[in-house]
Design a protein that fits this description.
Layout (H helix, E strand, L loop, with lengths): L7 H21 L7 H10 L5 H16 L19 H15 L30 H16 L2 H20 L13 H12 L6 H17 L4 E5 L15 E5 L2 E9 L5 H12 L6 E6 L6 H12 L3 E6 H12 L1 H15 L4 H15 L2
Parallel strand pairs: 3-4, 4-5
Antiparallel strand pairs: 1-2, 2-3
Length: 361
């Protein structure tokens, strides 16, 4: 009797969704909570040179989430009514997904590491290359086997967290672009901003633009910026990005993915604008427009000699690149690539995804 059929499109959707969750977990260093036994097993698996064990485990976890009744120890569809086709899931979902996101993984199907019609049981350890890692594989598999649907999701998400961690330890190469039209720049920026990054990508876009403006127009600007969630004073800056000219502050910018309300403007004025006497402060935002109360407060501050402005990052960058011309767009891409070269692998992969989409690759 043939086994159960795993819905491939559903598997792709779940894997994408949980991978995004895992990337967010990694960015905050807060992995989802799973049993200590699973954590210890994952530590062994992801330090092993045998990649196929952890990839097989990922396929099993995914199958369990899609179909709670599946027997995760039976990865061949001809092994009974509760078995599943691990090879199909790997070839059509898991391996392409890991490859596209530049996660180190096997080149071929993971089942090639096992004998045909393998069952994931202790007896299979005979003849395997890394028996300790396979024992860890079985330990984690047992947690998946016993999990309820919510726990199975958490175990899948934790595995993906470790895959993200693995990718961060490797080298992700950035796809290069030589030149872009204004319309392509607009689409690329829109794509880059489509995925929240804790504010990092918007900041990198803003810094790239300011460095471009300085170079194209021959301005004596020093553009300084800081890491996300780093105290401004610790870096000697008055905002997320500070532009100085001959030692004087030319412009201070705060870049945000969160909505700007009155309290945000008031707090920023008290802590960053008023003490150093900044007269020109710019909120560069993604998405939601600032609240009406925030704009009213900005008008009041203008009357006191402090101009607080608001600009949507995408429109602001595209308009500047339109004014500065084709050369500026080439410089902008180069500056952005230089900044991205030091960015986390998650951000680099997001860039590569957007470039592939832009070029129709």
């Amino acid at each position: 009797m043939m086994g159960r059929t795993i819905n491939i499109e559903e598997a792709k959707r779940v894997l994408t969704e949980e991978f995004l969750n895992a990337e967010r977990d990694y960015s905050t260093q807060t992995p989802v909570t799973v049993p200590q036994k699973a954590q210890q097993a994952a530590g062994i698996l992801f330090s092993s040179t045998v990649q196929s064990y952890r990839e097989a485990l990922l396929g099993c976890a995914l199958a369990k989430v899609i179909d709670p009744d599946v027997d995760v120890r039976l990865p061949y569809a001809n092994q009974g009514p509760w078995a599943f086709s691990g090879r199909t899931l790997d070839e059509r979902v898991v391996n392409p997904f890991l490859t596209n996101r530049q996660v180190p993984c096997s080149r071929g199907p993971y089942l090639a590491s096992f004998r045909r019609n393998v069952r994931f049981v202790e007896a299979t350890a005979s003849g395997l290359k890394d028996k300790r890692a396979y024992k860890a594989f079985l330990d984690y598999l047992e947690e998946i086997e016993q999990a309820n649907p919510d726990q199975a999701r958490d175990l899948l998400r934790y595995l993906l967290y470790r895959f993200v961690q693995l990718r961060e330890q490797s080298s992700v190469l950035l796809m290069k672009l030589q030149r872009l039209s204004l319309q392509q720049c607009d689409r690329l920026i829109q794509g880059l901003l489509s995925q929240p990054t804790g504010g990092l990508v918007p900041v990198l876009l803003v810094v790239a633009l300011l460095k471009t403006v300085a170079e194209v127009y021959g301005l004596n600007w020093d553009v300084r910026w800081q890491g996300i969630n780093v105290a401004d004073r610790a870096k000697g800056t008055s905002g997320d990005v500070t532009v100085t000219e001959n030692g004087d502050i030319r412009l201070s910018l705060e870049v945000t993915e969160r909505q700007i309300d009155k309290n945000r403007v008031e707090a920023t004025f008290q802590s960053k604008i008023s003490p150093p006497g900044i007269t020109d402060y710019l909120f560069v935002f993604v998405g939601t427009e600032p609240s009406t109360e925030a704009r009213l407060l900005a008008n009041q501050l203008f009357a006191q000699g402090h101009e607080v402005g608001f600009v949507p990052v995408r429109d602001w960058i595209v308009c500047n690149l339109a004014t500065a011309g084709a050369r500026a767009r080439g410089v902008f891409v180069q500056k952005l690539l230089e900044l991205l070269d030091e960015a986390p692998a998650t951000v680099k992969t997001h860039w590569n995804d957007q470039v592939r989409t832009l070029l129709g690759a």
